[in-house]
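Predict structure. Chain length: 278.
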Amino acid sequence: MRFGIIGHPLKHSISPRLFNEIFNMMNLGFVYEAFELPPEDLETFINFLRQAQIVGINVTLPFKEKVCDLLDWLDPPAKRIRAVNTIHKVNDKLRGYNTDYYGFSESIKEFKDRLRNVLIFGGGGAARAVLYSISQLNYQKVFLVERSARRREKLQEDFGYMKNLEIKEWEDDYILETLKGIDFVVNTTPLGMEGFSDSFPLKPTYSLQGKVFMDLVYKPELTPFLKIGQSFGAEIKNGVEMLIFQAIKSLEIWTDLKTEFKDWQRIYNSIYKSSDKF
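Prediction complete.
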């Protein structure tokens, strides 16, 4: 069986090595490939996928939202989130799923019961999965900042059902004032990832002790966003566990195979330690 990932850029992605190592461990004759696409080639690739001998595809930025309208069916979470990160081809029909929200939910179990007020940076496909996940929790207030007016409007339209959700333009003064009353801060933007800005536009002037900072970026292990949180006393967490949990769920959707988190984590650590570049 063939699987793969689409996105742009993809050189930062560990997914091909991670999946292929899992396949080797399980003695499976499966292959997982990277398909880096110019943004304008998404529809061409989806048409190719319908004819190709490929069973499953993961989707990363910038395609998670755009791909929804090109598929034949969306599962209920993906339909609600309006973002897809997993495609399964069944009888020449393309089914879209969102396993990001599952990965995020599993990765925050250790502290989810103390999360009441949440601040989210970014409004793309990953942010949508985070919003959906948080909507299932006993939160009090969610603040989301996004630079694009179009995205803010669409988020308000799609997540208007969430009580006490405030979506605002990315403004430093608003962010710094809001941050004071926040328990959980999540970066869903690619800032800090290889190929993107190596800084994060947040300059607190007070302690962040008692707050949790989580970055969905998994490489570098300590992102610019997490460095800020750590230096001001926050508890920090990167996106590695989310990456692994969403991969586990993707493989299960494609093959019905059950795999163990500890095996994926061991392989991830081995890859990470063996090379500075994935």
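Summary: The mean pLDDT is 94.
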